[in-house]
Structure formats: structure tokens, C-alpha cells
Amino acid sequence: MRHKAVLLAWFSLLFGLALLLSPRVAHTAPLRVYAGVYLHDVSKFDQKDGVFDVDLDLWVKWLGDFDPDALTIANAAEVERTLVGKESDGSWHSARWRVKGTLRGEFPVQRFPFDRQTLAVVLELPAQVAELVPDLAGSGMREHFSVTGWLYEPSFVPRVGEEVYRSDLGSIATEGRSTSVRRVAFEVTLSRPLLTAATKLFLPLLVILLVALVALFIHPKELEVRASVGVTALLSCFAFQFAVSDTMPSVAYITLADVLFLISYALTAALLFVSVIAYALNERDREVAWRRLDHAALAGTPLFILAVIAFTVRTSPVPPSAPIAQLKGERPASARQVVRIGTNALASASGGLVGRGANWGTVRTELDGTRLAALAEEVPSITNDSLRFLADGKLDVTWRLREKLKWSDGQPLTASDLHFALQVSPDPRIVEVRVVSPRELVVRFHDRVAVALEGITPLPHHALEAEFKKGGYEAVRVYRRTNATPSAGPYRVAEFVVEDHAILEANPHFIGPRPSIARIEIRRFADDAALVRAFEAGEIDMIAPNAISPEAAQGLAQRRPEAVKVSPSELQYHLHPDLTHPLLARRDVRRAILQAIDRDRMLVAVFGASAASARVSHVPVPGSNPEGTTIIAHDPAAARKAFEAAGAVGATIPLFHGRTVVDKAMAEYLVKETAAAGLTLEAKEVKSTADLYRTRKHGGLLLQTTMGDRDALPEKYWSLPQTDGKFDRSFRSDAYDDSTAALVEREERALYPERREQIRDLLFVAYSQRLPNLPLLFLADRTVAVRDLDGWKAGSGGKFATTIERWFFAPPAAATP
């Protein structure tokens, strides 16, 4: 009995440990199911019965567990659904069906014969099963359908909605509750040919009315003849309306055609009445009167017809437009209206700390990744009319600017400024750009790529056109870096002197709320000591992130612990190899260089007490490493062996680095570590590592920092050269070969986030194996600020100052610690 108790206790302990150590299922994000449709044909559109026939391919893709049969076609009347096949790629699965049959639809005819009808394939899935999302990357249609008598453009518009059935639909699990379903519709719009409408409706009515007018040319004494003409015209109208109505659905409202027939009835009856009056006037020998009456009817009838038609068309119901989202964002009251920031570098008026408050685009991305409409009325998405998917695979994106937009200098900001930005830095994926109006721009992409949904940052055409004509993209880039240009954000650059100072003031023409702090003064200081002295003397309120060394930050923290914040950063230090160098072009040599470096010890050597917030990097983005990541450990013996095999022992490779204390310390450490393995690195300090990195041709290794952003274009991390600000994807190297390029193309066509994340992980794993750059460390951000300056702590690395318009000075008693 005692032994049983002991065994039971051990079993309970092991069971408890198993529960504690077992992986937990994350419930942070619901299961998403992506449904797509390819329309092969649409035929037998019967508007009277409200049905049409389709022949299409239907599929779903999902990550995890899902029963694909749960997806239904909500507007199916009678369809045959045949399973074509299923596929799996790890946890990703798909199922595809061939669907043929009849679908239902609602076809309002208020504006007949000028009505536009929407044929939709509506898919439905219970909300408790999964979130249904349209697969925009694969969905499409053939360019020609079998629908006769209608005009249509070979493009579809996706719609997403939700409907609640006041029923449990027979479910036991949700018995007695309403059922919420997610719907996705793929819509094709049809319209009637104007010539056909004019020929089949307006022309016959016009002929009938002209016949009725003929009676006015007959002498009033022939009342029987005039009356017979009028009665014939009236009966013809009745017969014609019955013929037209027979082809239309029975509706309880008046259509535009009905209005035209009513007008025809009224006119023919009125003309018949004119004939009777004219006969009476003639019998009383009042010839002048009946002639005037006939002439007035003859002249007034056409004018009356035109006026009524114009009024009817003009007052036809127009679908209400969606409300425009207002620019939101907390703007706390600030106790002070000037913030003074010190930095160790101030090279650009268009980027960095200066540009983040001034240069806003059509879309603004918040710190949590939420995308909000900024200069545009709405963010292009499947919930609005901004996207059109064409049958030939192209994608149209429409940008509609907000009303009364202005640059900071008061000049109007129009769609031409968006177009100009795309001209300065052209995207090879864009095949056409059309300025539809001063507030509307349509951009056509050659394929359905995710980058099409990214925002556009406009450039002031009136201020930069001359520079663009002089030297294209490079001339505009240099001018914007060295001069204050008009801006569209909450701040305008009032003054800028390269590597000296910048002054930002509240933009008086900004479309949104004014920033909390009206003025930002940024000054560059010569070194760490000068920055620390200025802060302690109260000359500045903040020292920009990483502007002082870890040692200087540690020393200041001992005197002012409340002022120094050290936090993890997304900025990665890496070595960029010039892949045209004969040694660096070899992957085994690049790998050996990493093996020669003890990166864990580098953390402590460079960052000291703040090393806990820094991390060794193996992939270009922070966070956990994807499954399959190659971890290159410190192994100097293996490094030397690889150098010997490659003939690199005794070779000298230049190592370019910046002027900061951290750059110099890291360069010194790298030289020492690689020398121990037999490779000589020659440290060379340069004024700007960014300029060398942009060219990608420096003949050696370049110590550089890059923002590790998962949502960035993957080409950013693969050492591709740039042309006019865009990566040259035709470039090939030992690292970026055809297989890598194929992965990049797959990623840009994955318009749904789970698939993109999966492919990005594959790219990051490939990065760790192919080493287009040699990953070293993720920095520890060192930021210094006075206690009462608030609102700045949310962003780090490249996201620092993203919300600078919301910074504020709190009263001392309310300041956060």
C-alpha cells in the first residue's frame, strides 16, 4: 500500500510537470481561411428570374486544422461542386473544387435602361469556425464571358462582410443562439450598351411621339383623323410598355423606363386633348387661337421631354459613399512648447529624426502595425472600392486624397505630387499611372503584389521639378537631404544646416490636429562629453538614441538614473561584404569570418553594463529565430582551417566603419578576432557608411546598421544594389541566386499575412545560411531625456519619433518615472 502511494505521488508529479512544460495553444489570433475564385465563364444571365450560370474554380487555403467542406456558396441556386484536389506544404493546406451551376442575385432596375448590375459569387463560413478572407493573389477571371447584350470590364471587386442569422441553424453547440457568418463576395459589374438602350427603348418611343405630333399638322376640322392618330400613339405606348415589362422582373418601384412611358402617356393624351380644343376653336372661327395652340404644342413637347429626362436622370438614386475616416491621435496638452534634442549626427533634412515629423504619406503606420489613412481618404483594402483586380493579372489601386490638402508652404497638394514621387523613384512593377483628377490617382501594377497596398509619400512637384530635370533621382535625393523642402506632416522644417542644427515648427497647413509641442530644436554636438554637459546644464531636454557611447550613458546613469533609458532595439549591426571581392564572394570565407568572431563576448566588450539589452543576431530581424536557422558558433580553429583552404590566410581585407565610439570599438574588436584566425582586416574610418552601403561597391567589409523590420521588403537584407531608390532584383550573387529570387517573388505575391510570414521565415533561414550580410548584434538603445518629457518611450530603433507629434511636457508632479 505504501509503495502504491509512493508510485501515485511520483505519477502525479510527472503528470503535473508534463502539463507545465507542454506547449500552450495561442489564442491571440483566430484561424484565417483564404478563399479564392477563378471565373471561367458567366452565361444565361436572366434578370427577370434573378439568376445566372457560372463555371468557376473555387479553393481555400488555411494554416492549421480546418474542414474545407464548411465553406459554402451562399447564393447557390443549383450547383455541382467537384473536388479537384488537395495540397499541403507543412502546416499549410489547400483544397480546390470545380463548380458549375446557377447562382442567384439581386438586380435592381430603378435606372433601367441605364442600370448597372453586379454578378457575385458569395462565399460563406460560420464566424465561430474561422475568419473568411478573400485570396486576392490567385483570384481572377477570363477576359471573355458568354454574357450577351451586356458590357463589362474583365475585373472583379472583392467584398467582405458579416451577417447574423437569428437562428442557431440546428447547431447543438450554439443551441438557442444567433449564428454569425463571414461572407466574401467576388463581384463583376455589367452595364447595358448605350446604343442598344437608345435603339430599343428611346427610338421607338421617339417614333411614337413623333407620330402623335403629326396630328398637329392636320387641320382641326378633321377631328376624326387627328383623334385616330393620337389614340393609335397612345395604344402603341401601352403595347410597347407591356413588351418591355415582359423582359424585366416584377418590382414594386418605378423605374426610369416607367417614368419615360408615363411621360409618353401624358404627352400623347395631352396632344389628343389639344386636337379636341383646336377643333372647338375652329368651330368658333378662332383660327389664330388654334394655330397658336398647335404651334405651342409642337414647340413645347420636345423641350418638355428633354427637361423631364434630364431631371429624372439627375435625381436617380446614387449609392451613399462611405464616411471618410478622420485623422485621429491623442494630442495631450504640453506644459512647454519647445523641446531641445541633442545628437551626434545630423546629415539629412528628409530622413531620421527630422523627417519623421515632417514627411507623411498617404498611409501612416502606427507603432502597433495598424495602418491608418493619413493624406488619403482611405487605405486601399478589400472593404472599399480602391482595388480592382483585372482579368490579365494586373491590379489597379486608386488613391483618393483628402480635400483641401496643402504643403507647408501653402501650395495645394494634389495627385500630381503622388505621380511625381513615382516618377522620381520608379517601381518596375508599375506599368501605368493615371492622374484622374487633382485628388485621384490610379496606379496599375503588372501583378497582384503586396507592395501595391503600401502608401505613397508625395514629393512637392513645384519645389523639386527643377532638380529632377537636372539629375533625376540622385539630384532630388541630395537636395532633400541638404535643404528644407515643403512637407505634409504635422511639422515643417523651418531651418536646416547640415551637421549643425535643424528647427521644426508646427505645420500651419497640416490636415490633422496640431502637435502637442509646437517647436523642435535639434543640435549636433561634437562628442559624447559635449552632449552630456549640455544635458546636465539644462541646455537640451533629450539626447537622441545611441548618440552617446555605452560608457558615457553608464556614467550619466550613475548621476541621473531617472534620465537614462536602455532598451532592446531593432537596429542590427552587421558586416556588409562587397560580393565582387574574390574572397568575400565565397560563402565559406564569409562563414569563416563569423566563426572567427566571439559575438557573445563582443556584447560585453562593446556595450558593457547595457549588454543585457543587446543580443547576438543570426537573422536580420529581432525576436526568436525561425525553425531551421543556422547558428554559426565561435570556432576560431574551424575559421583558420577554412581560411587556409580558401587561401585567405595572410590576406588583407579593408574594414570600413563610422566615426562613433561604438563603431570604432567594434572595428577594433573585429580586427583582433579575425587576426587570431589568420585573416587581416584593415580598419578604415569613413565619413558616411550609408553612402558606401548604397553603392554596394567598396571592395571589402563595411560595418553598418540596418533596421530589422519584418514588414520591410525582403530585398533589403540581401545586399542588392539600388537604382533610383529601388532594389535591382535582376542582380545575382553567391547569396542571392535564382532560388532566393524565386522566394522573394513568392513573398511579394502572398497578400495574406500568415503565408507572407511563413515565406519570410524561409528567407531569414536562407539568410543565415547564405550570408549576404554577416549578422553581428542587435543594439541596446541608449536614450536620455528629462523626467517631464513624455510620450517618446513607445518607439525604439527606426521607429523612434514615429509619434513625435504626440510628445508632450507633463507638469512635474504628473511626469512618469
Care to describe what's here?
It is elongated, with a radius of gyration of 36 Å. Among the domains are: 32-192, Neurotransmitter-gated ion-channel ligand-binding domain (Acetylcholine Binding Protein, Chain: A); 196-314, Methane Monooxygenase Hydroxylase, Chain G, domain 1, CATH 1.20.58.390; 567-780, Dipeptide-binding Protein, domain 3, CATH 3.10.105. The strands form 6 sheets. Strands 12, 19, 20, 21, 22, 23, 24, 25, 26, 27 and 30 form an 11-stranded mixed beta sheet that branches. The protein is built from 17 helices and 32 strands. The chain is of the alpha+beta class and 817 residues long. A hairpin with a 4-residue loop joins β15 (387-390) and β16 (395-400).
Q: How much β-strand is present in the residues?
A: 25-35%
- By DSSP (H or I, 4+ residues per run), the number of helices equals 17
Poorly predicted residue ranges = 1-28, 316-321
Helix content: 25-40%
Q: How far from one another are the termini?
A: 60 Å
CATH topology of the domain at 567-780: Dipeptide-binding Protein, domain 3
Mean pLDDT: 84
Q: What is the CATH homology-level superfamily of the domain at 567-780?
A: Dipeptide-binding Protein, Domain 3
Biggest beta sheet summary: 11 strands, mixed
Question: Quaternary arrangement of the chains shown?
Answer: single chain
Nearest-angstrom radius of gyration? 36 Å
| Helical/strand content category | alpha+beta
- Counted beta strands: 32
